[in-house]
Design goal:
The protein has 92 residues and is of the alpha+beta class. It is 17% helix and 23% strand. The N and C termini lie far apart (44 Å).
Length: 92
Amino acid sequence: MGNLIRIPTPLRNLTGNEPEVTVNATSVGEALDQLEQAHTGIKARICDEQGNVRRFVNVFLNDEDIRFLDNLNTPLKDGDHLSIIPAIAGGR
């Protein structure tokens, strides 16, 4: 079964327009590493130079923000879903 990563529209050009990618990982960080191995360049859009999730990107495990869990060390179990959601800025 694995872990399903939902890819936001702005990053789908890096995944061959695939809206979802399946990985087999034990943590969020490992899942992002596997995503990078399969789709070179995508992790730089999600993480900064230190390897941390960028401020303007949210990563959710199922329905919980990983920043309120154990961030990139958050464990995954088979069947978990990750959603990468770029923050939307604007307004006045």
